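step: validate -> pass
step: tokenize input -> pass
step: predict -> running
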Amino acid sequence: MIRSLRFTLVLVIALSSCAKLGLPAKTGKKEEPGPFGPSGIPPQLRGNGPADSGTPVVAGGNAPAKPLPLNMVPDDDMVFTDPDNPNANIPELASVLEGTKRGPWEASEIIAKQRAAREGKPLLIWFTDSAKSPMCKAISQELFSTNDFGKWAEEKLVRLRVDANVEENNPDLDLSTKETRLIDMANYVAALKKRYKVLGYPSLILLNPSGEVVGRYRGYKRGDADYTWGLIKHGEAVSSAAYKSWRAGLEKKGYREWSDRKERKIFAKLVSYSKGTLVMIEPDGSRAQTKETSLSDQDREWIAEQKKLRNIQ
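step: predict -> pass
step: emit ->
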């Protein structure tokens, strides 16, 4: 009887200790890990540490204790090429935004990636051979050339077309220059095929705004337009969800969307403001400067509020 009581007492103490330690109960069901780990965010969209989740709000009032300069980024986030003239060689925002939209399908990987990063959209790369591949012609006719896909892609994607059938139709070029151009274009296509490990046509590669591959689709069959579009939609949804989480973290650190008078947008943080001139920095470290008068009315109102908070005339 005494042994039975002792065993019962030990068992009760052990269970009580486990409860206090917060040990998880065994359910017998193992959860499947997500494709991007516990955070659900692809590695290239993750920040460098806890700071990316935002700065905790400290209680004690809604206004700063003393006027602050309109400088929205710590000094260690700034990258200056000339310490004596930190704003030297910073491009104008208008010139940066001028090339952000050139057509339904871009021809330059650099421009396409810049657009994807600035617009926060996934990049769809279409590797095609318009001269030799019947299925490339089929996917173009049945999907990419349709109005429905065009309207959806205009809102959701940045598109890059890489055609193995290189052509140079500029009549002002001499034969030698044309041949050089064709060789350069062929080498460019070959380099992209090697970089993205493309083995056949058509091949579709989907990148998130930071440049990480999140989808890879090879081949096409006639009549599979809806199926292929569904795959692209799924990849776009996964990428966009991860991007929103990443962007929310940056917004807590001072990044916001800016617009100029032509309604062209850029996601950046204000580095400094002086006499109506603003310097901004994008998440990738690119900087641009502009006059306050070149920004949208909404952005100018935001600047006025910030100046008021900091007692800046």
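step: describe -> Residues 1-29, 38-83 have pLDDT under 50 and may be disordered.
step: cleanup -> pass
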